[in-house]
Write a structure and sequence with these properties.
The protein is of the alpha/beta class and 495 residues long. The chain has 18 helices and 14 strands. The structure holds iron/sulfur cluster (3 copies). One iron/sulfur cluster (SF4) binds next to helix 15.
């Protein structure tokens, strides 16, 4: 029985076991994209490199046999640098957007494509909740935001941008609904319990209201202070904003459980004594400094103020929980501007919906104009933004997609858009797992590598439809695929 050390930890495995097996036994995680338990290792991605200290060589843990006396380092700088280079190379030819361009551009980071798909499906409560969750004041913003998201909307390459700003004009109270089955969003049957303590927000402009709302979502009891008699700050001076819209949104926050203390002077003594944390939101507070206070800058662009308010709330939350400040943003693979033919590929996402009638959940009901409008969305976001291992490891290893620019970018392509599974070759890292899984499943066709060199691609032999190649192995292939290359068409992964 070979006995070896993984990062100094003793591990003993059966003869024939791999370094990866030995690491698992002592709970050391080694990243891999191409290896699946129970499958013969290929070491095609090489992300699992580790250092054999005796020889000084980097070896693939998934296929290297464990040898008696081996000393393995899975974390040293050399290993980390090699993994980063491997990821950068994979990303250099990766054609996919983790996030949609519209979401990226929206300062408050509204999950626009998800909201649009929920509108299209007729899940209005769910769509309303997404808008409320991300924007705090979706109806107010729908009147005054200059809609930078629409300027970046890819649909304008086909005809006109989606009217995103109009579509988040939800003027109801906070939607408490149980209709979240598609998105897997957490339903709010009542206000979240106050688990985080009590926090104060000083200032009730867009930044202050957004801070309070985010803190409420994070489970804090929240009180908003303002010397003005009505909440809203400079939003009240906006000529294009009907005041009843703002009033009703403030009221919805109050009904959700946020307390408002308006129209009287603010006792800083009380604030610091009674509350566990405080966010100062407003111009007048810049330059003021209280120990352990957080600042949310108001901004002439209300959506920017909303973003600032959210950021301050998240920073306060992390501070109160003793967590390190959130520094890193999520890794986001970007395709950039699409070629004309590529936009037409994305249009398949809309055409498929029309053909299958997916957007008519209530049989016999006429489509609302909002549903038809939302149905024009191209689904620019990836279908596997959470489960994608490439994204996960790119984030963990600080990968940079621009490190090794490709001479020629592959084309955005969608295959199987009318079926339950969609295949996007531009996101495939050619790990071969789906090929092996379909072979093991024993279907007549399966999947195979076709073509040569740069043009090698996974495909169904003889040009048959994707479903014919996947047969009963569709779910297994989607789950094993380490990226968003193979995904269920209607998947809604979010965390
Ligand atoms: S496959 Fe992964 S890295 Fe690529 S766009 Fe999707 S989530 Fe991002
Ligand atoms: S088409 Fe949809 S997902 Fe793409 S940028 Fe426009 S709104 Fe966003
Ligand atoms: S499509 Fe197949 S070969 Fe490509 S990344 Fe997914 S599982 Fe691997």
């Amino acid at each position: 029985m070979p006995e070896l050390r993984i990062n100094g930890l003793p591990s003993s495995v059966d003869v024939g076991a791999t370094v990866q097996d030995a690491a698992e036994l002592v709970f050391v995680e080694i990243p891999t994209l191409c290896h699946l338990k129970g499958m013969e290792p290929e070491a095609s991605c090489m992300l699992c490199v580790v250092k054999d200290i005796a020889t000084g060589e980097l070896i693939p843990a998934c296929s290297a046999k464990a040898i008696d006396g081996m000393e393995i380092d899975t974390e040293c700088d050399e290993v980390q640098a090699a993994r980063r280079d491997i990821l950068n190379l994979l990303l250099s030819e990766h054609v996919g957007d983790c996030e949609a361009p519209c979401t990226r551009i929206c300062p408050a980071h509204l999950d626009i494509p998800l909201m649009l798909r929920e509108i299209e499906r007729g899940n209005m409560n769910s769509a309303e909740w997404i808008a409320k969750r991300d924007l705090a004041l979706p109806a107010t913003l729908s009147h005054i935001c200059p809609a930078p998201c629409e300027k970046g909307c890819r649909r304008s390459q086909v005809d006109q941008a989606i009217t995103i700003r109009e579509l988040h004009r939800f003027e109801g109270s906070v939607p408490y609904s149980s209709n979240y089955e598609i998105t897997g969003l957490t339903p709010l049957s009542s206000a979240p319990s106050v688990v985080g303590g009590k926090v104060a927000v000083i200032g009730s402009g867009a930044a202050g209201l957004s801070s309070a709302w985010k803190l409420w979502q994070l489970g804090y009891g929240c009180t908003v202070f303002d010397e003005a008699p009505k909440a809203g700050g400079t939003l009240r001076d906006h000529p294009d904003l009907p005041m009843e819209v703002l009033d009703s949104e403030v009221e919805s926050l109050r009904l959700a459980g946020i307390e408002f203390r308006l129209g009287s002077s603010i006792s800083m003594h009380e604030v610091t004594e009674v509350f566990d944390g405080v966010v100062f939101a407003g111009e007048e507070f810049s330059g003021t400094h209280f120990a352990d206070a957080f600042y949310a800058e108001e901004h002439k662009l209300a959506v920017k103020a909303v973003a600032n308010g959210k950021a301050a709330a998240v920073a306060l939350d992390r501070f109160l929980k003793g967590a390190a400040p959130a520094s890193e943003v999520r890794f986001d693979s970007k395709v950039g501007k699409l070629r004309e033919s590529e936009v037409q590929e994305l249009v398949k996402n809309c055409a498929a919906d029309e053909q299958t009638g997916k957007s008519a959940p209530h049989v016999g009901q006429a489509f609302l104009p909002a549903q038809s409008e939302a149905g024009r969305c191209l689904h620019c976001d990836c279908r596997k933004p959470v489960g994608c291992k490439l994204r996960k490891y790119a984030e963990k290893h600080g990968a940079d997609q621009r490190e090794f620019p490709a001479d020629e970018r592959k084309h955005v392509q969608l295959i199987g858009h009318n079926e339950s599974v969609v295949f996007e070759p531009g996101k495939c890292i050619k790990c071969g797992l789906c090929v092996k899984i379909t072979k093991r499943a024993g279907g007549a066709l399966g999947l195979a590598f076709v073509g040569r060199g740069f043009n090698t691609q996974v495909a169904v032999p003889f040009g048959a439809a994707l479903q014919e190649g996947l047969q009963d192995a569709a779910r297994e292939c989607v789950e094993a695929c380490p990226t968003g290359a193979l995904a269920f068409r209607n998947a809604e992964e979010r965390n």
